[in-house]
Amino acid sequence: MTQESHSDGSSIRPRFLMPDSSDTTLSRREREQRRRRRAMLQAAQSVFAEKGYEQATLEETAKRAEFGKGTLYNYFEDGKEGLLFATFDEVYDDLDEMIRSTFDGVDTADYSFRAAFHELVVRSFAYYEEREDLFLILIREAHQLCFSNDVEKAAYFQEQQQRMIDAL
């Protein structure tokens, strides 16, 4: 499990924080790299949601994304596992941003913790309703990996859970 990065070595920022692929502050090449990475990730998420991680193949992901299998490895060094963990990163980054933005106003007299928590629940349900594919992947695959004998994978999920707790 390695962190994805651009060819220039800079790390890829979370989707919520990542500028749109049409961001004019980026070079044309950078916009195209982001667009390709996003297309690959969306294709993988579609395959994972339909077939589950174990049954999903890089060949099918590459076909849906309309890229060669080798191109997937250029963007996701760990192949299928890299795509899965990039999906988890996307979900956790979205949830972290959702929690933080929801609770930003809690300290004010007009905004109670209870109201903020209610808003968070509503926003979470809306997010998972809109991104049902991500919800299926998270529930099905993350649950298995949380209790994995692979210490690195189990630690990843413990770290993400702690990040969500800290955001609250």
Structure description:
With 168 residues, the chain is an all-alpha fold. It has a single domain (28-167), classed as Tetracycline Repressor, domain 2, CATH 1.10.357. 68% of the residues lie in helices and 0% in strands. The protein has seven helices and no strands. Helix 4 packs antiparallel against helix 5 (113-130), helix 4 runs parallel beside helix 7 and helix 5 (113-130) crosses helix 6 (132-146). The longest helix has 25 residues, at 79-103. The radius of gyration is 17 Å and the shape is globular. Residues 1-21 have low confidence and may be disordered.
Rounded to the nearest angstrom, the distance between the terminal CA atoms is: 27 Å
Helical content stands at 55-70%
Number of strands: 0
CATH class: Mainly Alpha
Explain the layout of strands and helices.
Elements: H1 28-51, H2 58-65, H3 69-75, H4 79-103, H5 113-130, H6 132-146, H7 151-167
Helix pairs in contact: 1-2, 1-4, 1-6, 4-5, 4-7, 5-6
Which characteristics define this entry?
globular, Tetracycline Repressor, domain 2, mainly alpha, 168 residues
Produce a short descriptive summary:
With 168 residues, the protein is mainly α.
